[in-house]
Write a structure and sequence with these properties.
Largest sheet: 9 strands, mixed
Structural class: alpha+beta
CATH topology of the largest domain: Immunoglobulin-like
Low-confidence stretches: none
Strand content: 25-35%
Number of strands: 9
Helix content: 25-40%
Shape: elongated
Distance between the termini: 117 Å
CATH class of the largest domain: Mainly Beta
Number of domains: 2
Mean pLDDT: 86
Length: about 180
């Protein structure tokens, strides 16, 4: 009789541990599936995001007026998490911090505005860079560039999509 009791307890423990292990396996598979789906959605979002940075036509010192156009299919925002890096002619790189107010201070960058076309500000989805819109940003490199020198400006969105352009400071001609 004692062996029957031990047998029932053993069988009950085996059933409980099998059910627990099966439930944990199903739960882990569901979490893995959800994580995989999230990764695919993020990858698709990044794939549909494209920015193009356009340097100013002529630059003679001070704040650089950089245009960043959204040529992708995704809305872009969260400018505080964008990265702007300036690589100088000496090979040194400098990270510009984001400023919520325009004009930016030394070593900072700020958004001047988001526009639909030249001089026409956005009217829908304020503070979101929609497809075909562009953001006008001011960059204050503070002495990184000198007359006649060229710098590389690298812009990266919060999602990691990048664009780069080159800015050359025009040499000031002496007055006649």
């Amino acid at each position: 009789m004692e062996s029957v009791l031990v047998c029932f307890v053993s069988i009950a423990l085996i059933i409980v541990s099998t059910v627990t292990m099966t439930m944990n396996t199903v739960s882990s598979a569901a979490r893995l599936s959800g994580t995989w789906k999230d990764m695919q959605q993020k990858a698709n979002s990044v794939r549909r995001t494209e920015i193009v940075s356009l340097p100013p036509g002529d630059y003679s010192g001070g704040t650089i007026d950089l245009t960043v156009k959204n040529e992708g299919q995704e809305n872009i925002s969260n400018f505080a998490h964008w990265d702007i890096i300036i690589a100088g002619p000496d090979g040194n790189a400098r990270y510009l911090t984001y400023s919520a107010s325009y004009p930016p201070g030394d070593g900072q960058w700020a958004v001047e505005g988001i526009y639909i076309s030249d001089g026409v500000p956005e009217v829908f989805d304020l503070n979101i860079l929609n497809p075909a819109e562009f953001v006008q940003a001011g960059l204050n490199p503070n002495g990184v560039i000198g007359e006649g020198q060229t710098i590389k400006v690298i812009v990266a969105t919060a999602e990691g999509v990048t664009s780069q352009c080159f800015v050359t400071e025009q040499a000031n001609e002496p007055p006649p």
